[in-house]
């Protein structure tokens, strides 16, 4: 018999709205014994059953809910149903002849808290970031091989958030014989994904729509791509008719792959430039030199790890945007992003507006960008919305 979680009085409202988290502070009592990842039944203070979820004794999020249906068991069939439904949605979103890399499972938003699965052609890369996901690793891999039988499976559960769940980092082959790198198609462009050593699961699929927008805006523009990583924003810009692109990144291997992307997509290498430098230092140097571009792309890594770091991160975002705005010619465009889930959209907009004031410039927001459609946001879990982007005209 599974353990029972009893909530404190008046702490059941979020679960009744099907929010998938139960915090430690909401729990009055744990009846029975529950180990990390075990399935537990959750009851309100009056003894009414609310749902069942995965227990995590080391996390402030003590239970992550699997289901609010009493008849639903957390077995192989459960994972197969959830993953089949998610796969059906993704197949409606993309033309596989043009795009064969997508997020298959977006954790809570697909009903599988702590589970992320990205598909790169015939390779599935899995991140298991919660105690419950860890507990059911074999069921998840089984469901992948049932639904996509010709797919190799690799695990990249090597991120710091696992520590909060009391879990050690894990990487390695889970099924088949995945290569270290795989070349995929995105909107017809070829992209090399390093599944073993690349960021996250190897690539930032969530920026697919933003890359396409950059290509749309880039015609005849001299483009500065900051935090360029493997240069895919720049490939879209060149494909869209950019006059030149300059990639700035602190990682030389990423810049080397950016050069390769220009080559394999048969784009004009003479229009591509590469700067191996810290972006903050590069932007300050451009400002001192008076160097400006028609379009500047700012896609920094996540600055906010916790609510405690929000103020410091806000200062970082303001600085980078101020110097980014300095680098835009009058009448040019700034495409600026925050991938920090804890950064509210209205606060991000205010930070960019304040950065413009500090730069002595005026911005006009002409577009908003967000995570691609294969990163859905379930209605009961607003935390699933994390990627904010603004397209701004910059004037004097």
TrEMBL record:
Q: Where is the PUA domain?
A: 3-88
**Which N-terminal stretch is annotated as signal sequence?**
none
Cited SMART domains? PUA
The organism's superkingdom is given as: Bacteria
- GO (cellular component) term, any one: cytoplasm
InterPro entries for the chain: PUA, PUA-like_sf, PUA_sf, RlmI-like_PUA, SAM-dep_methyl-trfase, SAM-dependent_MTases_sf
State what protein this is by name. 23S rRNA (Cytosine(1962)-C(5))-methyltransferase RlmI
The scientific name of the source species is Alteromonas australica
């Amino acid at each position: 018999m599974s353990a029972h979680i009893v909530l404190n009085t008046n702490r059941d409202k979020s679960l009744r709205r099907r929010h998938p988290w139960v915090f430690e502070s909401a729990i009055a009592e744990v009846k029975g014994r529950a180990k990390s990842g075990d399935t537990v039944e959750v009851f309100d203070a009056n003894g009414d059953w609310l749902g069942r979820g995965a227990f995590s004794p080391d996390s402030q999020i003590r239970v992550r809910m699997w289901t609010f249906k009493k008849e639903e068991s957390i077995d192989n069939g459960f994972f197969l149903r959830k993953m089949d439904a998610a796969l059906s949605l993704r197949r409606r979103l993309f033309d596989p002849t043009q795009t064969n890399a997508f997020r298959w499972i977006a954790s809570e938003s697909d009903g599988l808290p702590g589970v992320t699965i990205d598909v790169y052609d015939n390779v599935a890369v899995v991140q298991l970031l919660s105690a419950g996901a860890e507990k059911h690793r074999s069921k998840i891999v089984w469901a992948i091989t049932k639904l996509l039988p010709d797919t190799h499976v690799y695990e990249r559960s090597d991120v710091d958030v696992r520590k909060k769940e009391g879990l050690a980092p894990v990487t390695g082959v889970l099924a088949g014989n995945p290569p270290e790198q795989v070349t995929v198609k995105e909107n017809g462009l070829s992209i090399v994904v390093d599944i073993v050593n690349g960021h996250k699961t190897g690539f930032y699929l969530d920026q697919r729509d933003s890359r396409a927008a950059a290509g749309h805006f880039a015609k005849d523009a001299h483009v500065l791509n900051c935090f360029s990583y493997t240069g895919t924003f720049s490939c879209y810009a060149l494909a869209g008719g950019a006059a030149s692109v300059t990639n700035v990144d602190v990682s030389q291997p990423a810049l080397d792959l950016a050069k390769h992307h220009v080559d394999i997509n048969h784009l004009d290498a003479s229009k591509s430039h590469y700067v191996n430098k810290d972006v903050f230092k590069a932007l300050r140097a451009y400002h001192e030199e008076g160097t400006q571009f028609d379009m500047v792309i700012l896609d920094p890594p996540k600055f906010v790890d916790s609510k405690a770091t929000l103020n410091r991160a806000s200062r970082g975002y303001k600085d980078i945007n101020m110097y980014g705005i300095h680098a835009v010619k009058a009448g040019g465009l700034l495409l600026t992003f925050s991938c920090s889930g804890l950064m509210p959209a209205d606060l991000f907009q205010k930070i960019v507006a304040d950065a413009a004031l500090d730069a002595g410039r005026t911005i006009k927001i002409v577009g908003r960008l967000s995570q691609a459609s294969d990163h859905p946001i379930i209605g009961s879990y607003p935390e699933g919305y994390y990627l904010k982007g603004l397209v701004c005209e910059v004037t004097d």
